[in-house]
Amino acid sequence: MPSDSLSQSELNGLIFMREEEKLARDVYIVLLQTWGQRIFNNISRSEQTHMDAIKILLKKYKVSDPVTTDSVGVFTNQTLQKLFNELTARGKTSLAEALKVGALIEEIDILDLQKELQAIKGNDDLRYVYENLKRGSENHLRAFVRNLQRLGIQYSPVKLSNEEFTAIVTSNF
């Protein structure tokens, strides 16, 4: 049953996740423009869907949207702004680095979603959306790892444990 209100932790998490999904989308848009690879197009569109799902929750709970402009690379959260700048610069150095940046973003997303899921106190709306976003991020991680393997590169996790990473990339969904 949906809750009518959010705890402060849930509120902060929702605001953060909205911009984190934008970060992923925006980095992939820049990398698509740089490398022209279909994976960046497909996953940037998926990240837009993730942003939209969180925006629906922001509206439902009457929370101000931290995304004040849809311009690529513009963030309210300065930590995310810095991360965007670093990741896009790194991703522009080579296609392999771009794919590694994608995998890293998805690792970060998975961990942040796990943290947010643990903080939920009975709010089924948030749980449903976050679980779906986490599944999406796991799918994206698998896609980036597959693309790296096609280039002959074995990706090693940066943020996830080896066990968690292996469980995700060897899962069918």
From TrEMBL:
Signal peptide: none
CDD domains in UniProt: Ferritin_like_AB2
Pfam annotation, one family: DUF2202
Domain DUF2202: 11-171
Protein name per Swiss-Prot or TrEMBL: DUF2202 domain-containing protein
Native source organism of the sequence: Caldithrix abyssi DSM 13497
Lineage: Bacteria, Pseudomonadati, Calditrichota, Calditrichia, Calditrichales
